[in-house]
Amino acid sequence: MKQNLASIIRALVLLAGVVLLAACYSKPKVIPTGELPLPADSIVVEETIDSAELRRKQDSLAFVAQHHYHENFNFVVKADSMQLIRQQPEEFLSRMPTDTFVVRHHDRLVVADIRIIPTDLDDSVWVQVARDQYSFGWAHESELLRAVDPDDPISQFISTFSNSHLLVFLVVISLIAFAYLVRRIRRQNAKIVHFNDIDSVYPTLLALTVAAAASLYASIQMFAPQVWQHFYFHPTLNPFSVSPLLTIFLVSVWAMLILAIACLDVVRTQLPFGEAVLYLSGLVAVCAFNYIVFSLSTLLYIGYLLLAAYFFFAIRAYLRASHCTFLCGNCGKPLHQKGRCPHCGAVNE
Fold first, then answer.
1. 214 to each of 116, 117, 126, 206, 309, how far by Cα in Å?
2. Which of 7, 30, 125, 129 could form a disulfide with 141 if both were Cys (CB 3.0 to 4.6 A apart)?
């Protein structure tokens, strides 16, 4: 009896499973002759729902392609504060009473909804963001993007160095530092890249790479702003996962890092500590000067001529500089000429 009951229970469970699977996958219904067809309005409603869903997905993909962010995208507030509207955008546009709340600097926000309102002449794109599960608010896209950065350190770094106030500050500081260092180095007859350089090609290559990367950075912003905008919202340090233009830029960034390490090693071996610090300070000032000059001048379309002239000057200065052809017989340090070694004092004949 118990076995029969168990068999019946298993059969019922199996039957229920078959019914559920059949409910999940249903073939189109064939209407036999003489049977009344399904109501026409139900077919129209189903087709309307499918077409509406398809249109919504297409609009969403088009929005992401143009604006580069989507629902569930993460931002961090870079402004001191920003107000968000709790009510729906239509209520705000209808001048109904609305309530706002404030998000602060460094608050993290996530995109909860995006709505296009063509009747809003100021900005038709409204974005709903959430600070936490209890704080949801709406803002115009233009207002939101001015106050936030993508929640990624690379994006925040790009935003910081694109700040016009910071660029002006860097211009002034770099010019002062460069003029001071050049004056001091020439008084002490110390080493400085391009003018009284050490016996190494790495500092010259670093300065040229910074200049070329700055010009390329400005060129991408001018001629391919959508490419740079997409990179800003979805940054990466992998040069092989982006477009060819960004691949060249990222390769130059990695080249700067490698050349900087090579410069540190070469300067450490060729100069005493005090002179090495002074030389590296001058090299940093030259690189900062190159970044500012070539990134700004390229935006004015004269940067390409300046870049060509700078390459000619830097390569010519390096080739004309006297390079070490001797080694000290006592300490092994490189020498420009025979005589007393400046490192150990030994006389080399």
1. 37, 39, 35, 12, 15
2. 125
